[in-house]
Amino acid sequence: MNDRLKYLKTQLSAAGLDGMIVSNPFNVKYLTGLDAEGVLIIAPKEMIFITDSRYIEEVTNVLTIDSEIMAVDIRSLSSYDFENFFMLCENVGIEENYVTYADYKNYLEKYKVNLVETDNIIEKQRVIKSEDEISKIRTACTITDETFDYIIHNIKKGMTEKEVAFEIQRYMISRGADGLAFDTIVASGAHASMPHAIPTDKVIEEGDVLLIDMGAKYQGYCSDFTRTVFVGNTDKYKEEYDFVLNQQKQISFGFRDNANIKILIKEAERQYQNAQYSIMHAFGHSLGLYIHEEPRLRSNVDNPLKENMVVALEPGVYVAGKMGIRIEDTFLITKNGCEALTKSPKEYTNIELI
Amino acid sequence: MNDRLKYLKTQLSAAGLDGMIVSNPFNVKYLTGLDAEGVLIIAPKEMIFITDSRYIEEVTNVLTIDSEIMAVDIRSLSSYDFENFFMLCENVGIEENYVTYADYKNYLEKYKVNLVETDNIIEKQRVIKSEDEISKIRTACTITDETFDYIIHNIKKGMTEKEVAFEIQRYMISRGADGLAFDTIVASGAHASMPHAIPTDKVIEEGDVLLIDMGAKYQGYCSDFTRTVFVGNTDKYKEEYDFVLNQQKQISFGFRDNANIKILIKEAERQYQNAQYSIMHAFGHSLGLYIHEEPRLRSNVDNPLKENMVVALEPGVYVAGKMGIRIEDTFLITKNGCEALTKSPKEYTNIELI
């Protein structure tokens, strides 16, 4: 049994749980390495991955005897088998933030056991990244930097937001990424004012603000990164740009092992209020196998930052119907500070279309 | 208020419900046209879309006075507002197949009303497609056919599964698709035996079976399509190919308004048993805004097919570690039969790498 499963089992015991039903695919992947649809049953005496015939061959290829997990085709299980998994158990954990209400009722009926909420027990285990995880995130970040450098030098006159987004994806994959960490945002001109803009057929034009929010996935791990550049020789919005850049610097300056998230974020909120900018979204989030992980960087988060957390910090300023500016990097929290894992330059940048 | 919302409201009344909380983004899009994160509140006297500041500008652009839906930023709502939405209501519907168990408990606390399962009430409304929806699916299917014709003539020697998958995406988008309906499967040689294979760095080689399962999305609507071709001059697996093709022909031959899904699928299952092939996945499913919609084509489905349903039919035969063959088309159910909306040839095909 691997260390992650061992640790989870001690955590379950400590919480008075006899076992757990793990359904969230990111948690399944974290615990087992599996990339297949299915449910991991952690019972007192055995671990079983219930999948279906579409995946059974892949699953059997990944699981070894050492993993101590048995792969089972759901069609081979009787209602008696389901009841048997947690026989003599009292309380079994579920992922209440993933399992639907219909699943919950279905589990109750099938497993005939008391189901207990686990308050992100596995997500909390995923908060601190291992050497191996950090190394994969580093690679995802390097690919992202390379892609940004490539793209800002290769936007042709007449290219649309969609075409730029596609070119980003093509380049990332050519550099070894599995794919995108999330749908790329390429928002130009007034579109940039929508923090979650979807790339359109709008042509990128002289005088536009150009906001690119993108991330690569490398061996399952994400990067997250945003830059806002200015097309042509314009210095409009310099003031707003400097404000955003300064906010990112100030917050990240406080990032270190044991730093108080609440205080850092509250201070940024105060700066926004003073400057009379509205806060359109959270200043940041953690990331790893998934693009939004725990803890969020919010003023109501009680836990401190910890060494080997990986977080993205992304302040922005938006003017509806006009423009938006956001700057985002992925950071590794260290003992005495933090290291930006995405390293692209972030001074005010004018680009030329080719 | 549009006809879809009007119809839903009569359905809710008939089910004894005073309102509904709609969270599934495909249902929100179907009812409102909105592509934003948020929750649609259908209360007796008003309809409200609760979103957040990241989306408020886009949402306000889409909603008109005629839509009779008010967009509200979640931060502007007090706990009193939440309780007020369903004041004097007894029973309010939820999407039990979408809402998580944690959401369910959260809704109970916030809305202070009795929450009732709705058994896919909106999904059932989506089963029969309108003229406009069919026309979008037709376009998605045409793009898919064009892409298949392009790709089988443009696979270069040395290209990997990943590269072919990427080229498919690029071509689809260049033909006007929003993007992919789902992650493309490009599985060659032994990889084809895994029905949900993820494209790898394996090079496509002479003598390989090459299975491509792909779909385009056009204005939100999906196509679904699979072809299996043979690289080089080989006629191995001709018997298995003909079996799969025959199954698809036979089932689709029965497709028409009022046809009994159960009987059609049971007959196919009998054919598989006779030929001693195992059944690795369902023979098909419906599709529309989402790639898997109701009804599934299974031998336990009681409802008949209906005119203007859109379904994909995808029988396959797999030999673990060796090969897989699947043939899939998207069909429109008509009064007296069905029309294949994907029209690529499907006789046994040998391709040459260029």
Structural write-up:
The structure is a homodimer of 354-residue chains. In chain A, helix 7 (131-152) crosses helix 8. In chain A, strand 2 and strand 3 form a beta hairpin. The model of chain A has no long low-confidence stretch (mean pLDDT 95). The first copy, chain A, has 354 residues and is of the alpha+beta class. The first copy, chain A, contains ten helices and 19 strands. Chain A has helices spanning 3-14, 25-32, 56-62, 79-85, 101-111, 121-125, 131-152, 161-174, 238-253, 261-275; strands at residues 19-22, 39-42, 47-51, 69-73, 91-94, 114-117, 179-180, 185-188, 209-214, 216-218, 221-222, 225-231, 284-286, 310-313, 316-319, 323-326, 329-333, 338-340, 350-351. Helix content of chain A is 33%, strand content 21%. Chains A and B meet through helix 5 and helix 8 of A and helix 5 and helix 8 of B.
Strand content of chain A: 15-25%
Shape of chain A: elongated
Number of domains of chain A: 2
Largest interface: A-B, 37 and 37 residues
Our count of helices of chain A gives 10
Structural descriptors:
homodimer; Creatine Amidinohydrolase, Chain A, domain 1; Creatine Amidinohydrolase; 2 domains; four-stranded mixed beta sheet; 21% strand
Task: Briefly say what this structure is.
The structure is a homodimer of 354-residue chains. With 354 residues, chain A is α+β, with helices and mostly antiparallel strands.
Give the SSE layout.
The structure is a homodimer of 354-residue chains.
Chain A: H1 3-14, E1 19-22, H2 25-32, E2 39-42, E3 47-51, H3 56-62, E4 69-73, H4 79-85, E5 91-94, H5 101-111, E6 114-117, H6 121-125, H7 131-152, H8 161-174, E7 179-180, E8 185-188, E9 209-214, E10 216-218, E11 221-222, E12 225-231, H9 238-253, H10 261-275, E13 284-286, E14 310-313, E15 316-319, E16 323-326, E17 329-333, E18 338-340, E19 350-351
Parallel strand pairs in A: 1-5, 3-4, 5-6, 12-19
Antiparallel strand pairs in A: 1-2, 2-3, 7-10, 8-9, 9-12, 10-11, 13-14, 14-17, 15-16, 17-18
Helix pairs in contact in A: 7-8
